[in-house]
Amino acid sequence: MNSLSFAPTASSPSPVAGRTVGDLLREWRQRRRMSQLLLATEADISTRHLSFVESGRALPSREMVMHLAERLDVPLRARNALLMAAGYAPLFRERPLSDPQLAAAREAVELVLKGHEPYPALAVDRHWTIVATNNALAPLLTGASAELLKPPVNALRLSLHPHGVGASIVNWHAWREHVLARLQRQIEVSGDETLSALRDELAAYPAPPDAGPAHPDDIGTNQIAVPLRLRTPLGVLSLFSTTTVFGTPVDVTLSELAIEAFFPADPQTAAALREFAESQRDKTAS
User: Fold this and answer.
1) Which architecture characterizes domain 100-285 according to CATH?
2) Which of 216, 209, 261, 266 is nearest to 236 (CA)?
3) Which of 182, 211, 271, 282 has its CA 20 to 30 A from that of 102?
4) Helix runs in 72-204, H state only
C-alpha cells in the first residue's frame, strides 16, 4: 500500500429499480424513527400530503423531494436515488478522486495525512476501503498477510481479520466491540447493505488464539476513548482515533470520504512513533 497515493473508489448508485419515491421516503422516515406527524411538522407540510406522497397518491416536486431529504438527513447518494425514483435527474455528481475537479480535495487530504505525521492516518471511502495513507501507518501493518494488503484494502477487515492486524491487537475484544458498534451506527444512518454484509463478516471472525478473555481493564475509567493497543516492532502502541470529514460537500465521493487519524494514548507510544519517523528520515537522507 503506497503512502499518499489515491486508490480508486468504488462507484455504485443506490438501487431504485421497482421502488417508488414514496417507498423510499417512508423507509428513510422509519429508519430515522420519525412518525408522519413529526416529519410533516418539521417539513412544514400537512400530514395528509406526506401520506399521499408515501402511498403514491401524490408525486412530489423536485423541490419537495430535496426538502424532505434534508429533514431526514439522507446521504447525498441516496438523495440522488430519491430524485431518480421520482422521475428527476440526480442532482449530486459523483466524480472519481482522480478527477481534475477534485484536485483541491486531494491536496487537502494529502496535507492532513502528511501533516499528521509522525502519527498514523488514513483516508477511507464509505465502505472503509483505504484510498490513501501516510508513512506512519507502516508499523501498524507489520504481520498482516500480503493478500489482505492487496488493493482494494478494507481498513476494518484488515484490523480484525485473523491474518491481518487482529492477531497483534492486545485488547482485541474491546476493539472488536468498538468497531462493530461504530459500523452498526453507520448502517443505521446509511442503510447501506454492503456495510451490513461487512458487519456480519467481521462479527464472524474468531478471536486470535492469544487474545484471552474480555477484561474490564480493556476499557479503563481513566481513558478518554477506546484505545487500539497493538503489538508492533516498535513495542506495544496505544492509540485512539478521530474522524475528519469534508464540510458541506456537494459531490457524492467527497461526502463519503473520511480521514481516520490516530493519536498516541500514552507518552511511550508518542516517543516510539517520533523515533520511527526520525529513523525513516535518516534512511532517506542517507
Assistant:
1) 2-Layer Sandwich (3.30)
2) 266
3) 182
4) 76-85, 103-116, 155-160, 172-190, 193-203
Q: Nearest Cα to 164, choosing from 135, 196, 130? A: 130
Average pLDDT, stretch 228-253? 94
**Residue 59 buriedness (CB in 10 A; 0-12 / 13-18 / 19+):** middle
The CATH superfamily label for domain 21-85 reads lambda repressor-like DNA-binding domains (1.10.260.40)
Residue type, 61: S
d(CA 265, CA 227): 7
- C-alpha span between 103 and 132 (Å, rounded): 14
| Ramachandran quadrant class, 50 (left: phi over 0; alpha: psi -120 to 50; beta: rest) | alpha
Q: How confident is the model at residue 215 (pLDDT cuts 50, 70, 90)?
A: low
- The whole-angstrom separation of Cα 125 and Cα 155 is 10
d(CA 121, CA 264): 12
The gap from C-alpha 13 to its chain's centroid, in whole angstroms, comes to 17
CB 118 within 8 A of CB 255: no
Strands 228-232 and 258-264, bridge-based pairing: unpaired
* Structural domain boundaries in the chain: 21-85, 100-285
pLDDT in tens, 97-110: 999 999 999 999 99
3-state secondary structure of 237: strand
Instruction: List pLDDT tens digits, range 191-206.
Output: 899 999 999 999 999 9
Task: List pLDDT tens digits, range 3-50.
Answer: 555 555 555 444 456 789 999 999 999 999 999 999 999 999 999 999
- The DSSP letter of residue 13 is P
